[in-house]
């Protein structure tokens, strides 16, 4: 995450950030053509989004594990001594 000192931000941005509606308001930053270039969100929203991303990653990991046959993977795995020998070739 990049850091910026709050006091160095324009007063209009500070006012928007200090708004009392942290979960229902984000702040869009637009260029001259009206294209969205950045978004400022409150810490509670940021934490919520991180938690949701972690939940999704965990769900994907669990789905990936469901499709694996661990016994077959262990049978085909090379033991450490064989691995070291193969590296010496």
Structural shape? elongated
The end-to-end distance, rounded to whole angstroms, is 44 Å
Number of domains: 2
Structural class: mainly alpha
Could you state the order of secondary-structure elements as H and E? Answer: HEEHHH
State the helicity in percent bands: 40-55%
Spans of at least 5 consecutive residues whose pLDDT stays below 50 are none
Q: Biggest sheet: strands side by side, in what order? A: 1-2
As a percent range, the share of strand residues is 5-15%
- Please state the average pLDDT score: 82
Please tell me about this protein's structure.
There is one protein chain. By secondary structure, this protein is mainly α. It has two domains: 1-41, no CATH class; 42-89. The chain is 52% helix and 10% strand. It has four helices and two strands; from the N terminus they run H-E-E-H-H-H. It has helices spanning 11-17, 43-66, 70-76, 80-87; strands at residues 27-30, 36-40. It has a two-stranded antiparallel sheet. A hairpin with a 5-residue loop joins strand 1 (27-30) and strand 2. It is elongated. The two termini are 44 Å apart. The mean pLDDT is 82.
């Amino acid at each position: 995450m990049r850091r910026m000192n709050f006091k160095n931000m324009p007063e209009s941005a500070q006012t928007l950030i200090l708004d009392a509606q942290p979960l229902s308001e984000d702040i869009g930053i637009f260029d001259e053509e009206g294209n969205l270039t950045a978004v400022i969100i409150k810490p509670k929203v940021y934490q919520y989004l991180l938690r949701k991303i972690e939940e999704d990653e965990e769900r994907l990991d669990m789905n990936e594990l469901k499709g694996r046959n661990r016994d077959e993977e262990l049978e085909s795995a090379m033991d450490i001594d064989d691995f070291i020998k193969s590296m010496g070739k």
